[in-house]
Amino acid sequence: MAAENSSVTEFILAGLTNQPGLRMPLFFLFLGFYVVTVMGNLGLITLIGLNSHLHTPMYFFLFNLSFIDFCYSTVITPKMLMSFVSKKNIIAYAGCMTQLFFFLFFVVSESFILSAMAYDRYIAICNPLVYTATMSPQVCSLLLLGVYVMGFAGAMAHTTCMVRLTFCANNLVDHYMCDILPLLERSCTSTYVNELVVFVVVGIDIGVPTVTIFISYALILTSILHIRSTEGRSKAFSTCSSHIIAVSLFFGSGAFMYLKPSSLLPMNQGKVSSLFYTTVVPMLNPLIYSLRNKDVKVALKKSLSKKTFS
């Protein structure tokens, strides 16, 4: 092993547990989660792509949400599964920084695409007469570009700050992936700038979408309360409920992990919180949007009936 205070060339990921008896059950559990995530998100992507009546702004953003969920789950889960079946789950320094960059890129992109979806629902419910003109293909494309630009900016800010650090000879990372806070614990140099960037950038990446979503749904709720018919209110609530559930799961677990001082959040609790938004949320999103969405159910039935008939 290299001398103390020298930069390392690889890291060892500790994984979720050090208890041998739990490794195989956890391997099959998270393998099952990953299979459901891949099938659910790719299925939703295929369904939206093949059904022309789903080619609307709402499903344009849902298509990209499924793509993002599939990608960032794929960035994390396969390497996590390796920790259950290998004695040492080694990842090269370059591989670790690459995983960190793409994880942050997709997770920040998800936070902003959820806010774009909230804005879309606000226009659909509060200004339905101008919905088609307001949410034109050009506007949707610009919103999506903004989503990925923010994802790239957030990932670059964190990764650039991380690569300037020198890591000690103790290269055991107490996590199942290369995440910001566990890597900072392995640094031999000052992490003050990195911690400042975490609070500022994560504050923006969670704060701006949260405020956008909160304002959108406050206006939506006001508009819904002015709807006289019970059927109209029920339809409006049904339209938004799936998105509210997805937003609550994602931002709740993300804020718990990154906006609390590390001294108040033991790493084991941090792992559980990370598991929630890296593994559970990408698996649940396609189920939430398909099981609670009438249009998706109809499109699925039509696709299945065509396949059966052919």
Strand runs, count: 3
Count of separate DSSP helical elements? 10
**What value does the Rg take, in angstroms?**
21 Å
* Distance N to C terminus: 62 Å
User: Spatial order of the strands in the main sheet?
Assistant: 2-1-3
Helix-strand category: mainly alpha
Largest beta sheet, briefly?
3 strands, mixed
How helix-rich are the residues, as a percent range? over 70%
Per the principal axes of the C-alpha atoms, what is the gross shape?
globular
Organism: Panthera leo (Lion)
Membrane topology: Multi-pass membrane protein
GO molecular function: G protein-coupled receptor activity; olfactory receptor activity
Subcellular location: Cell membrane
Textual characterization of the structure:
The chain has helices at 20-50, 57-85, 93-126, 131-134, 137-163, 180-184, 192-225, 230-258, 267-291, 294-309; strands spanning 10-13, 89-92, 172-173. It is mainly alpha-helical and 310 residues long. A three-stranded mixed β-sheet has the order 2-1-3. α3 (93-126) runs antiparallel to α5 (137-163) and α5 (137-163) runs antiparallel to α7.
Topology:
Layout lengths: L9 E4 L6 H31 L6 H29 L3 E4 H34 L4 H4 L2 H27 L8 E2 L6 H5 L7 H34 L4 H29 L8 H25 L2 H16 L1
Parallel strand pairs: 1-3
Antiparallel strand pairs: 1-2
Helix pairs in contact: 1-2, 1-9, 2-3, 2-9, 3-5, 3-7, 3-8, 5-7, 7-8, 8-9
Question: What features would you highlight for this structure?
Answer:
single chain, 310 residues, mainly alpha, 3 strands, 3% strand, Olfact_rcpt, GPCR_Rhodpsn_7TM, cell membrane
Structure summarized in a few sentences:
The protein has 310 residues and is mainly alpha-helical.
